[in-house]
Write a structure and sequence with these properties.
This protein is mainly alpha-helical. It contains five helices and no strands. Helix 2 runs antiparallel to helix 5 and helix 3 crosses helix 5.
Length: about 170
């Protein structure tokens, strides 16, 4: 199986050696243009990339939002309702510090995951473009063939009609 670059090179080389359009189309049809590297990219990810993807998937879920809101409310209730000495009295300075640290760690990981998603989207778009281009070429070739068949059919019909003259036609017998 050729890579896309090798296939294009072969087609260009064969065009220079008077390859017919039909042979070029068959070269395109024989080779698969779509790539599975987009879908198999997760197998080659590093630990950090997998962690960033997992974290972004979790942080973007309702489960995370529910747990986070529950923890915030629990933290505040424990510190407000604690009759003895609360570990983080009201204005919750320690809670603000914790939230700032979470945001400082979470933001770069989410950005890494978004960059990776953008890279996957770019590969998918490139793959779709190649498949669409090949399909367009094949459809255009089929369109030309159908036009040629219709022209040949019209020519045959004209030839059949011209061969039918009144003297050649048999009269119906009674």
């Amino acid at each position: 199986m050729y890579s896309n670059e090798e296939l294009v090179g072969k087609i260009i080389q064969d065009i220079e050696s008077d390859l017919t359009d039909e042979e070029i189309i068959h070269l395109l049809l024989e080779e698969k243009v779509a790539s599975s590297k987009v879908y198999n990219a997760s197998e080659t990810n590093s630990f950090g990339q997998k962690a960033a993807d997992s974290l972004a998937a979790f942080v973007g879920s309702w489960k995370f939002i529910s747990i986070f809101v529950f923890c915030l409310i629990a933290w505040m209730l424990i510190n407000i309702l604690a009759l003895a000495t609360p570990f983080d009295p009201y204005p919750f300075i320690l809670l603000n510090l914790v939230l700032s640290c979470v945001a400082a760690i979470q933001a770069p990981l989410i950005m890494m995951s978004q960059n990776r998603q953008e890279q996957k989207d770019r590969l998918r778009a490139e793959n779709d473009y190649k498949v669409n281009l090949k399909s367009e070429i094949v459809v255009e070739d089929l369109h030309k063939k159908i036009d040629l068949l219709m022209e040949n059919q019209a020519l045959l019909i004209r030839m059949m009609e011209s061969s039918k003259t009144p003297s050649n036609e048999e009269e119906p017998r009674e």
